[in-house]
Amino acid sequence: MGSMGYSPSQSATAVTSFMGTAFLLALLGGFLSDAFLTTYTVYIASAFVELTGLVILTVQARTPSLMPPRCASPGAGGAACEPVSGAKKAVLLAGLYLTALGVGGIKGSLPSHGAEQFDERAPRGRKARSTFFNYFVFCLSCGALVAVTFAVWVEDNRGWEWGFGISSVAILLSVPLFAAGSSLYRNKLPTGSPLTTIAKVLAAAALARRRGGGGGGAQSSSNGAVIDRAPSPAGSADDMDEYCKSGDMEEISISDAASPAAEPSRELALLNRAVQCQPPRHGRRLACTVQEVEDVKVVLMVLPIFLSTIMLNCCLAQLSTFSVEQAATMDTRVGRLTVPPASLPVFPVTFIIVLAPVYDHIIVPFARRVTGTETGITHLQRIGTGLVMSVVAMAVAAAVEVKRKDVASRSGMLEDSGKPLPITFFWIAFQYLFLGSADLFTLAGLLEFFFSEAPPRMRSLATSLSWASLALGYYLSSVLVSVVNSATGRGGHRPWLQGASLNHYRLERFYWVMCVLSSINYLFFLFLAVRYKYRNAGVIKVMRTSL
pLDDT tens, 431-442? Predict the structure, then answer.
């Protein structure tokens, strides 16, 4: 808004579009890691792409000829700001979306790279992998804490070029830090496009002809045995990893021969035709193994869970858009210190930094003793907890907005006067805390859920679904803003999310709509979760210890 002349709604759309693109590109990073390159290579390349984007933004912020002319603030009575356009907008978009490409590549490769370092065939390795995902989110929050405090202070007091410059140095330093462990890393060898396998199985099942009336079932030609899936997470692992030394780094080769599935499972039985009835004309080209069919079934069964998390991430998008704009109208002083509105995410990231170790070292061990299972709290239970918190967060956000506008009305400050309202910005902290908790429970749960459930050859791509859910949540937020404005602006009425200032918006009504949609979404997730059967073969009981 301040540098590029965008209105509040245009700014919110620009931010959500950028964030959505960055997270959606994680699918590209995951696909390349599984199909053609290693996670190690994708991370290094993505870091340099992100560095290029940040350097472009630094140069633009430092060069007045690449910036739009400054416009007067509303209180100064100047003309309305014109959004950036032409070549200057092209430079801005080039910097932003190169940065987004780099961010996507890193997020698509780094979580699965870290998780591959643990031996999932041993209980100790699986527990350590779960701890890794918790501390992965913890470290993301530590970086965010530096970003919303130190970097924001530098941007506000020294200029945007300094903020972008600090980010450029940070990503540059991350490369040698990451490369320092090269001799110790285990790297999974790429096995070709997982999308090819998915397409082949779907095509084979569609083209297959039933033979003997049993093509759609899961009958065995010998004893009729079928594979069944457990109703809760298992500690057992897929033993399909073979290890070999290559250079200085240990490489993981995925081999189907290690533990092939003998018979197809009962779920999605129509896909069993890809194995039991080969297509007559393309038998060799579309020949599928039982393991390939089971892999595709797993992917299809996790997709509804993936879809049910998009609404939560739509709620999270409010943290970087309307919630920041709300805080900008409030009193952000803490003693003699004035907190920049962009530093408001300090509340959720601080809460995550505190909660992540507590969850990993206190809550999970206690849950393991109570339930007698290796996981203690299942992945879907953890995700469901985050969804419930997002519902509460939207209700709290609506109540706080009602309070904020009531203060503005009683103070005669509904018109934008440029002065902060006589209400502390700590009221906004409540919705940030609930959404921060939802983010911790859901993101770490999703990362581990997709990694542990996915076939080994598709793990990077599957883990990237966690970030794709964030991306679609940001896009959905932009769509909802447009739909709400279109629906409420009919008949000569002013749209809920338009006006000269945020005080003229009907933001509380928008938040209530989000609350209702989130509640419906949770019921949809609950319907899926109680019916989902985990991929592993059973629940490993841990030894109960006397207290």
Answer: 888 888 888 888
Q: Say if CB 66 and CB 88 are below 8 A apart.
A: yes
Burial of 547 (0-12, 13-18, 19+ CB in 10 A): exposed
User: What count of other Cβ atoms lies within 10 Å of the Cβ of residue 490?
Assistant: 8
Q: Is the pLDDT of residue 540 over 50?
A: no
Task: Yes or no: say if 408 and 494 are a contact pair by the CB < 8 Å rule.
Answer: no
Torsion angle defined by CA atoms of residues 521, 526, 527 and 530, in that order, rounded to the nearest 10 degrees: 160
- pLDDT for position 392: 92
Looking at this protein, which amino acid is placed at residue 182? Answer: S
Q: Do 184 and 195 fall into the same domain?
A: no
Task: List, for residues 272-293, the tens digit of each pLDDT value.
Answer: 777 766 655 555 677 777 878 8
Q: How many domains does the chain have?
A: 2
In a shared domain, residues 273 and 333: no
For 334-425, where are the alpha helices, taking DSSP H only? 346-358, 364-371, 379-410
Same domain, 138 and 128: yes
Contact (Cβ atoms closer than 8 angstroms) between residue 98 and residue 52: yes
Span 27-85, pLDDT tens digits: 898 888 888 888 899 999 999 999 999 999 999 888 888 777 776 554 445 456 677 77
Q: Provide the CATH number for the domain around residue 185.
A: 1.20.1250.20
Three-state DSSP class for residue 309: coil
Tokens of 456: 């080994």
Q: Could you give the angle at the alpha carbon of 14 between the alpha carbons of 520 and 332, nearest 5°? A: 85
Q: Are 460 and 33 in contact (CB under 8 A)?
A: yes
Residue 112: how many CA atoms within 13 Å on its side-chain side? 43
Global pTM reads: 0.76
Report in angstroms the alpha-carbon separations of 503 from 368, 414, 426, 497: 49, 6, 18, 10
Q: Are residues 283 and 356 in the same domain?
A: no
pLDDT of residue 7: 74
Do 307 and 284 belong to one domain? no
Order of strands across the sheet that contains 241-246 = 186-188, 249-254, 241-246
Do 54 and 167 form a contact (C-beta atoms < 8 A)?
A: yes
Query: Across the strands, what pairs with 252?
Result: 188, 243
Residue (of 122, 103, 124, 106) closest to 114 by Cα position: 106
- Residue 497 belongs to domain spanning: 8-69+86-190+293-531
pLDDT in tens, 138-153: 998 899 888 888 888 8
In this structure, the answer to whether residues 206 and 342 fall within a common structural domain is no
